[in-house]
Amino acid sequence: MAFNLASDFDRALKAAAAAAGLEDASDFVPEVRTADARHGDFQANGVLGYAKARKLNPRATSEKIVAQLSGEVRDRCEITIAGPGFINFTLKPAALLEWLRTFSTREALAAGAAAAHAGQTWLVDYSSPNTAKQMHVGHLRSAVIGEAICRTLAFTGARVIRDNHLGDWGTQFGKLIHGYKRWANPAALAADPIEELERLYKLGHNATPDGSPELDEARRELVKLQNGDPENVRLWQKFTEESRLAFQQIYDRLGIRFDHFLGESFYNDKVDRVYRELGETGIAQESEGALVVFHPEHPRFKTQPFIVRKADGASNYASTDLATALYRAEHLHADGIVIVTDFRQADHFEQLFLTVKKWFTAKAYRVPELHHVSFGAVTGEDGKALKTRSGDVIRLKALLDEAEERAFAIVTEKNPDLPESDRRDIARIVGIGAVQYADLAQNRSSNYLFSWDKMLALEGNTAPYLLYAVARIHSIFRKAAVRPDDPAIEGIAIIPETPTEIALARKLTKFPDAIRLATESLRPHYLCLFLFELAGDYSSFNNADKVLVEDPPIRARRLLLCARTLLILDTGLQLLGLRTLTRM
Ligand code: ARG
């Protein structure tokens, strides 16, 4: 037994079903999940579906399976059959201690979780802003959710490729170059390049109304850029370079490092192959000069076309995304592709994925797993789009600054005696962590209700609450004058005994299943919820059971529980992209 619990029980149940001589035992999927704590630790629901499909009595089937369960499983748990045939496992206290001993490091926890994606390559396309513009509050979610997904995928064994699919190509560059050549202010460009580029784009846009000769000029600038005119290419490269530098300042604060910045422009010379292959396989058809794909099997996309090449022959968002999918499968060998954008692009990705599957299948290319991870808007507490007082969009930089400032005020109020630089360091971690965590803790499909007071509260499912729990456990170890990973603790510790010790230990064993749930669904809020509940069980334990008692075995078993809670909170928060503190 690898002692990974849910997956161990899964294996044991399958073996037992075979040993019991059940028909098609190899098709039996036990479906072991974390159980409602009243019923046990883990529950297998799979017998119901299996028995129903074969017109068997589910309860009797469960009994047959349970009778064949290995001695190892029986030694570790109480096993009961509930209701129509659920199989429940409740870990015995000795098994809890064994679990705590087994999962003593981050590596051990990762090894336990690694099976899910071992040997696979996953590409995550996230953040992906458009260049020559500031990142604003709308860009927060893709970066934060994408990074958490990268980290959990890597934890479950995947090789993760972080790709920033910059929006660095398109008609807007004609207007920007038009504005730049007329009104660029070198001093402003040096001081705040993106600010100045935004100003120039606006000037360029306003100076080129529809039907005006100026618009024709802007279009000519674009054509020159597309045809490789050295001056315009140089300008465009400058815009890209400045944008990347500005974006990186945000990424540094969020702890994000991309492996690639393969923006839309990278695919310019790769779209012709897309047109050719979609044409020759009969997947795309000409329609009024454009190249389009219909999906007859789909209620909407049988009539709503996916335009893969515009009528004027130009490529568009769909053409580049098709070329991108091929590049990722063919050159980056992605087994899975995750693209993180807001919900408004849902149709685009549904059409894209349908097209990719047909195209790759027709050409006998391997089809990767394709996921659009979509999320709701960022809104104020009133449910309306988040704006500054003057009604402008909020810049991401200003938002992160404000988070740190607000956290600084709170830290200063709590620890007025700490040196200012320490308070700044703490505030940075708490402030940025609060913004990240508030985003991740809500189901990503919902809107992100942005509230400074809620996200910075020391109570509730918030970053400060969890970071504080971590810091508090560190302080116990400081008092005890031992390190959390001191092997002596594990050596002396005895079996958990009090109800609060047992409840905490039982909760800890659910960490791998929380990771599974968050990774399978690509929804980090499951991990947040688990960490929040764990911190709650820890707090009940801490209130009921004094840790630093005289009796060495009892003290050691409580320190062991503290050490594992610390390890799992720390690991979980880092997987979400947060940094943690030893003091707060
Ligand atoms: N640049 C796009 C935007 O700002 C997001 C790109 C997402 N990735 C992709 N492969 N389409 O909305």
Show the helix and strand layout.
Elements: H1 6-19, E1 32-34, E2 42-44, H2 46-53, H3 58-67, H4 71-76, E3 77-82, E4 86-91, H5 93-102, H6 106-113, E5 121-125, H7 140-155, E6 159-163, H8 172-183, H9 186-191, H10 193-206, H11 213-226, H12 230-254, H13 271-280, E7 285-287, E8 290-293, E9 306-309, H14 317-330, E10 336-342, H15 346-362, E11 369-375, E12 378-379, H16 396-414, H17 420-441, E13 448-449, H18 452-455, H19 463-480, H20 487-492, H21 499-508, H22 511-521, H23 525-544, H24 552-575
Parallel strand pairs: 5-6, 5-10, 10-11, 12-13
Antiparallel strand pairs: 1-2, 2-4, 3-4, 7-8, 8-9
The chain binds arginine.
Residues 125, 128-130, 165, 167, 321, 324, 339, 341 line the site of arginine (ARG).
